[in-house]
């Protein structure tokens, strides 16, 4: 199982939208995908149509309790895509985890004990660099960073990258950046294009070629409990996520992705 954390401490940059739709695209190509919702907002769970009544065991129980990952898994309407849901309980975990000696390794340890029923584990991180995101980074092999095409896009990125460096040095030498995905790209806005050019100049090849356009279908889909790729697979947002998934697959080890 390869583990990819979707992280950026900035709020509302497209982490959850990316996790849901890339997870769907990867499942559609034949990979068995597990999406772990590690955000107390539970947006990934809601966006995948998991009602609160079905969230009996959650990522909170995995992190703070002794619930095995596989016991918290809920199937989604997308074949081969499962989710470990989150509820608002998870907001308490940041504080409760402090009590544990292995507070940074709780998710990693839980995943190590998980039978390899999935090819890819995607972790949807909350908008902070607290213990939840650190648990995700310790557990992950790769980091996927959605970056919104706006004026302050690069601000905060250095903080994210120095956190990655610290995690790599202290806990997880195998952690690497899978890529940076530019999101909410608005072709009619000259600033967007300028930001994209600047980001590429600074970060280089780590930035995916595919950009995710600003597309209202992407924002409508979660209210129907469906990935945009299912809600409207022909909208520009879905097409972009399919293209991004293709690039992602090319960067992942062959064992993680179906032939
Ligand atoms: P948070 O930090 O709160 O977890 P996030 O980084 O996970 O946020 P999303 O929830 O994916 O970001 O997106 C923020 C909002 O923008 C949501 O309402 C989502 O539907 C919308 N959105 C995301 N991507 C796009 C897009 N490409 N075009 C239009 N709307 C989008
Ligand atoms: Mg989110």
Throw out a few tags for this protein.
259 residues; eight-stranded mixed sheet; binds magnesium ion; alpha/beta; binds adenosine-5'-triphosphate; Rossmann fold
The gist of it:
Helices cover 39% and strands 17% of the residues.
User: Superfamily at the CATH H level?
Assistant: P-loop containing nucleotide triphosphate hydrolases
**Rg over CA atoms:** 17 Å
How are strands sequenced across the largest beta sheet?
A: 3-4-2-5-1-6-7-8
Query: Structural class, please?
Result: alpha/beta
Name the overall outline: globular
Q: And the CATH topology? A: Rossmann fold
Q: Extract low-pLDDT stretches.
A: none
Question: Can you characterise this structure?
Answer:
- The structure is a single chain.
- By secondary structure, the chain is of the alpha/beta class.
- The chain has a single domain, classed as Rossmann fold.
- The protein contains twelve helices and eight strands.
- It has helices spanning 15-28, 43-47, 59-64, 69-72, 93-96, 106-112, 131-139, 157-170, 190-203, 216-220, 228-231, 236-251; strands at residues 2-6, 33-37, 74-75, 81-84, 120-124, 142-148, 176-185, 207-213.
- Strands 3-4-2-5-1-6-7-8 form an eight-stranded mixed sheet, sandwiched between helices.
- Helix 9 (190-203) links the parallel strand 7 (176-185) and strand 8.
- Helix 1 crosses helix 12 (236-251) and helix 6 (106-112) packs parallel to helix 7.
- It starts with a strand and ends in an 8-residue tail after the last helix.
- 47% of the residues are buried.
- Bound molecules: adenosine-5'-triphosphate and magnesium ion.
- Residues 15-16, 39, 43, 124 line the site of magnesium ion (MG).
- Residues 15-16, 39, 43, 124 line the site of magnesium ion.
């Amino acid at each position: 199982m390869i583990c990819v954390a979707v992280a950026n401490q900035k709020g509302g940059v497209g982490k959850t939208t990316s996790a849901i739709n890339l997870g769907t695209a990867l499942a559609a190509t034949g990979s068995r995908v597990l999406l772990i919702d590690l955000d107390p907002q539970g947006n990934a769970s809601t966006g995948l149509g998991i009602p609160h009544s079905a969230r009996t065991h959650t990522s909170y129980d995995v992190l703070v309790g002794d619930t095995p990952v596989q016991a918290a898994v809920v199937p989604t309407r997308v074949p081969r895509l499962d989710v470990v849901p989150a509820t608002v309980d998870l907001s308490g975990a940041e504080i409760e985890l402090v009590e544990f000696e292995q507070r940074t390794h709780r998710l990693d340890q839980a995943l190590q004990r998980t039978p390899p029923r999935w090819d890819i584990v995607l972790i949807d991180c909350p908008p902070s660099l607290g213990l939840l995101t650190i648990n995700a980074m310790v557990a992950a092999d790769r980091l996927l960073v959605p970056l919104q095409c706006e004026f302050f896009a690069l601000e905060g990125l250095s903080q994210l990258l120095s956190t990655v460096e610290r995690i790599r040095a202290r806990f997880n030498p195998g952690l690497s950046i899978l890529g940076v995905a530019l999101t909410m790209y608005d072709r009619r806005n000259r600033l967007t294009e300028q930001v994209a050019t600047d980001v590429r100049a600074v970060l280089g090849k780590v930035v995916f070629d595919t950009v995710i356009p600003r597309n209202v279908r992407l924002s409508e889909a979660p209210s129907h409990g469906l990935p945009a790729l299912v809600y409207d697979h022909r909208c520009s947002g879905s097409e972009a996520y399919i293209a991004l998934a293709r690039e992602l697959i090319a960067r992942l080890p062959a064992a993680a992705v179906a032939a």
